[in-house]
Amino acid sequence: MNFLDKKVQEILVKAADNIIKKAKANLSSGNLKNSLRYEDKDGSVALIMDEYGMFKDKGVTGKNRSDFKGKKKTVHKSVAEPEFKYRSNAKAIGGESQIDKWMYKKGIQGRDFKGRFLKRKTTNFLIRRSIFQHGIKPSLFLTTPYLKYTEQIIEEFNNLSEEIRGNQMLTI
Asked: Which residues contact 61 (CB under 8 A, 6 or more apart)?
């Protein structure tokens, strides 16, 4: 690896480390935060995380239809290109076990209009249907630091380019 390759690799690794640190700071806790890392191999740097991290970062567009009778009418829009969106009907929504674990951990149990507890399965379905209807709001936990440090990478590459040009002038 020559001088230029080493300098470029240093810049990329430093930026990846900063991006991951800032992205982790933007997340509260959990598996996604623990899965965030970068890998440096063969002259390139890759940012790695659990698959659902992209949906959390970019958001998912909801399928709110005109016949939906809920109070909340907000439909979150995905900022991904192409847009992340639900493609099937509400009955096919997965994640029942994950929502159930989350409900248990947070102590969530729905109630009816008379104040009686709803069945856990009913509450689970209502939460999943709401996510399907309204979507997932983009958190941009990774996009924001990525854009910030991309500008810094460009600036450091420009500085490196000027340094190399200056060294070439001295050797001529």
From this structure: 75, 76, 77, 78, 83, 84, 85, 86, 135
